[in-house]
Amino acid sequence: MDPRETLRIAGRSIRAHRLRSTLTVIGIVIGIASVVVFASFGASVEASVVGQIGGTNANNVYLLPAETDDEGPPGGAGFAQPVFTERDVRELSELEGVRTVIPRGIVQVSSVEHDGRTVAQRQVTATTPNTFRAESVVAGRGFQRGAAEVVLNERAAASFPGNLTVGDEVTVRFTSGEPANLTVVGIVSGTRGGFLTSFGSAQSRYYVPTEPYYRTTTESPTLGVDQRAYPQVTVVTEPAAATTARDRVAAYVPTSDAVRLLPTGFEVSVQTSGDVIEEIQDVIDRITRFVTGIAVIALVVGAIGIANITLVSVTERTKEIGIMKAVGATNRDTMQLFLTEAVLLGGLGAAVGVPLGLLVGFGAAEYADVAFTLPWNWIGFSVVMGVTTGVVAGLYPAWRASKVDPIEALRYE
User: Fold this and answer.
1) Edge-to-edge strands of the sheet including 226-230?
2) What is the pLDDT of residues 115-126, one digit of tens each?
3) How far is CA 234 from CA 15, 23, 116, 149, in A?
4) What is the tens place of the pLDDT at every residue in 239-258?
């Protein structure tokens, strides 16, 4: 039978039962649309996060204590262990290919006061001026080393009536009761400037210079003298030498004070932005595959619907099949006709489901404030799945139609 004639007859059969065909296709549409929604949203989040890290922190190496069996993200258990001494900071900064080393420490405080109002604050972060980059500062500048200055994130600025602005004075009260009068010199964004800048938007954060406010010390096992010690350091490497510099940093770690100061069960974690990106991609891929797997259930339901409607069609058109075979149609022609009808239903579901899924995925990306990314591989997969569902669902009914005896079919009422 001419393929065009097969398509015409199959299309006519579908149009003759529009409501039944529409209800059958809805299952496929829901399945395809669900796959595309979850895949596109996952791809959008992944592209946004990876773009931020790769674009702004591609040459950073992060050193921090981590439990040897901890598979969680940086910042888990052991994050507050102050083990990186001033000696480690100096030795790391002298490695070839290293641009700068940024230590970070925690200073315990009880409150922050401004204009007669007091807000509770448990800690502030002590670091160095080079932790602030132009793209993360939304107002003012970073503080200067040794100055009575403070930088805060936007949430901290909004914690006082009228918001804190550059030039305001605040009083940070340490847990010892000692106050420190500081000038606000900068406001940093919790979302701009890179994913791992840790300026954070969910909590109020204050940043002060390590000199003179950070006083946590420990004895350097190498030098035998007390030095400042930090729980985390970030090594910023030269972009052109990021890989070799990371290897040098990793080679230094076994000789560092940090390794000797760590308690049993901890190790120094050396991670680059690329390592973090791989972990994030792996997590997002797993979530996408899991959720998409659930959506495939709708495709199975749709396939059952196509098989059912095609079987009903074979029964209803038994006499028509007998006439076709009486005028020369072969078993192959009959099978081809019903298989084409099933494939058309599956293809129609994909044709409607893909744009519908993209539309919902675009809305979800807009709601999450991430750039929409087209998941081309998942779109292709969805189209193939729609057509394949039609083929699989239509195989048995088409085979059954091809086996109809023409004599018995002509007698069928």
Assistant:
1) 84-85, 226-230, 217-219
2) 888 888 889 999
3) 66, 58, 37, 22
4) 777 788 888 999 999 999 99
